[in-house]
Amino acid sequence: MKKVIIGLVVALTSLSALAGEGVVTVASTHSAKDTADKFVAIAQEKRLNVFARINHQENAVKVDMTLRPTEVIVFGNPKVGTPLMICAQEVALDLPQKVLVYEDAEGKTWLAYNDPMYLKQRHHIEGCDEVLNKISGVLGNLTNAAAK
């Protein structure tokens, strides 16, 4: 019975990921800036490398355009990413990991990231389920912690 329930949870999770084209979203209780700041602090606390913070809203202002808060945080750990690239080198197109923090039209803040299981499908990754599951767990934990 336990295996059936786990199978259903995995299937439903996979269907929701496919419905969102492989993007997982998490609602935040903070502003976009505070959420991004919190995410970076938590990632650094977990000894992840934060390579870049790309503030698209600031860049839009530079070209006289208006954009709601939209920031991409690029981060990762070669101890996790490298084994994934060994399984399927093409996945390097999607590495390091990225999290999008944005404010929607209703003023709600969201975090979004690529579902590692979608990357598995996209890049035909085989033999790396343990790494993909670890990445899924880390992304879920980081985004949920930053959202609270």
Automatic annotation (TrEMBL):
DUF302 domain sequence ranges: 54-116
Extent of the signal sequence: 1-19
Family matches, as InterPro entries: DUF302 (IPR005180), TT1751-like_sf (IPR035923)
Coiled-coil regions listed in the entry: none
Swiss-Prot/TrEMBL keywords: Signal
Recorded superkingdom: Bacteria
Name listed for the protein in its UniProt record: DUF302 domain-containing protein
Protein species of origin: Vibrio parahaemolyticus
